[in-house]
Amino acid sequence: MSTSQIVIEAQNLFKEFSGIIAVNEVSLNVSKGEIFSLVGPDGAGKSTFIRLLCTILAPDSGSARVLGFDIRKEPEEIRRLVGYMPQKFSLYEDLTVEENLNFYAHIFSIPLEEAQKREDEVLKFSRLAPFRNKRAGTLSGGMKQKLALSCTLMHSPSILFLDEPTTGVDPISRREFWQLLFDLKAKGTTIFLATPYLEEAERSNRVAFMHTGRIIACNTPEKFKTSFKEKIIRLKSDHLLEAKEALLKVWPDLKIINYGSELRIISGDVSERKRKISKILMKNAIPLAELEITDPDLNDVFIQILQEKNYGNN
Predict the structure, then answer these.
(1) Nearest-CA neighbor of 235 among 281, 276, 290, 297?
(2) Which tens digit of pLDDT belongs to each residue from 271-301?
(3) Domains 6-225 and 229-295 share a fold
(4) Residue range 176-232, pLDDT digits in tens
(5) Spatial CB neighbours of 86, under 8 Å, sequence gap ≥ 6
(6) Residues 15, 18, 24, CA angle at the centre, nearest 5°?
(7) CB-based burial label for 89 (10 Å; 0-12, 13-18, 19+)
(8) Among 176, 180, 143, 144, residue whose Cα is nearest residue 160
(9) CATH superfamily of 229-295
(10) Rounded Cα gap, residues 81 and 68, in angstroms
């Protein structure tokens, strides 16, 4: 981790709801200017952890400091200095883009002249200036997320907490949103986000995998991938189940991961394995769409970590 100033420091944070543990003794540090991604499936505890850091929820035990302030003793100081963008669009859909920004300026008691300046800046930054008089409810999903981000930026927060900001957004809008995040990082803003998309997490400085309320691994995307010593064979076919069954008959211990519309086969000697796979599928009259060797990505790393820690197979 960077040796620069630590702006988020959590120690053994714990939170449960009616006997269900949401965040289980989580400890982590985030440095100033990082993009830090918290990755995990639904129910992993990502949203709860962010709400603890934003002082929306109080922990049952453990401690944390955000920008040097204690989340238990100094919540108001933290709220003035951070921005929080929840998972679901929570702005006023019957107000215009400009009216939503004005509302946020009022919440944070920003003087009128400064608020007008900030409004122009965030509209230019988010490329929403041509839509300032359009009602929020008529915006596309991607534009709504840009508006939510713009509102969050009105008081110039030092840290942005984003809870799955691109869920349900089309790929082009997602790419545009990430470009805004990179621009903010370049200006020194620290970004802490939860995401279910591992391909997004690869753009971060560091990634923490969360599962059943715990952080099970934390590192840079590069170090995660270089720690994966084997290669991957990607197999695409309209008959994935039959292909998997045929391969497991020959190699019962073969590591095969079902991943969307493909199988990802983990192996050491991938060149020889690929040649034999092709022969096995041909022998069983199973048509192939693709069969190629590729480097592991964070999805492969995450699944391997889950299996190593006995969280079940995918």
Answers:
(1) 290
(2) 899 999 999 999 999 999 999 999 888 988 8
(3) no
(4) 899 999 999 999 999 999 998 888 899 999 999 999 999 999 999 999 988 887 889
(5) 163
(6) 25
(7) middle
(8) 180
(9) Reverse transcriptase/Diguanylate cyclase domain (3.30.70.270)
(10) 11
Confidence band for 314, pLDDT divided at 50, 70 and 90 = very low
**Residue ranges of domains in the chain:** 6-225, 229-295
C-alpha 132/C-alpha 20 separation (Å) is 43
Alpha-carbon gap, residue 242 to 263, rounded angstroms = 11
Within 10 angstroms of residue 175's Cβ, the number of other Cβ atoms is 13
Residue 138 per-residue DSSP state: G
> Which residues are CB-neighbours of 144 under 8 A, at least 6 positions away?
89, 91, 136
d(CA 205, CA 185): 11
pLDDT digits (tens, 9 = 90+) for 3-61: 469 999 999 999 999 999 999 999 999 999 999 999 998 899 999 999 999 999 999 99
What is the CATH class of 6-225?
A: alpha beta
Of all helices (H) and strands (E), which one includes residue 236? strand 231-236
Mean pLDDT (whole number) for 226-241 = 90
